[in-house]
Amino acid sequence: MTQPKRDPSTGRFIKPTPSERVAAHVERVNALHPEHDSDCAVNSEPAYPAGECDCGAVARSLPKGFPQAAISKPKPAPSINKRAAAGIIWFIILTGLALIGLIVYLVTH
């Protein structure tokens, strides 16, 4: 990654030009989403589940000395959030209690 430029006379940072900003952005995107080989495990879908990179593209895209442990794996999206699940469970419980109450009422009267 390119280092920010400084004005030699004042020591202040020089604002990058639009083309330098675009180049830095492309460099960051390429580091986060490297091009994998065609036989890499990340390209196994749909025949097999996609696996972790085994072609070395991730390692090649990281700066030297970058710890591999710093690469975070995305967490799978939950199929339903906890609040919705709790609401569904309470609905089932209350509906069951209402049915039990109705049955008891009908049997006793």
Secondary structure topology:
Layout lengths: L17 H15 L24 H5 L20 H27 L1
Q: Kindly report how far apart the N and C termini lie.
A: 81 Å
Q: Per DSSP, what share of the residues sits in E-state strands of 2 or more residues?
A: under 5%
Share of helical residues? 40-55%
- Assign the structural class, choosing from mainly alpha, mainly beta, alpha/beta, alpha+beta, or little secondary structure: mainly alpha
| Whole-angstrom Rg | 28 Å
- Nearest-integer average pLDDT: 78
Supply the number of helical segments. 3
Q: Tell me about the biggest sheet?
A: none
Q: Low-confidence parts lasting 5 or more residues at pLDDT below 50? A: none
Secondary structure: number of strands: 0
Describe the protein's architecture and organization.
- This protein has helices at residues 18-32, 57-61, 82-108.
- By secondary structure, it is mainly alpha-helical.
- The protein has a domain at 76-109.
- It is elongated, with a radius of gyration of 28 Å.
- The model has no long low-confidence stretch (mean pLDDT 78).
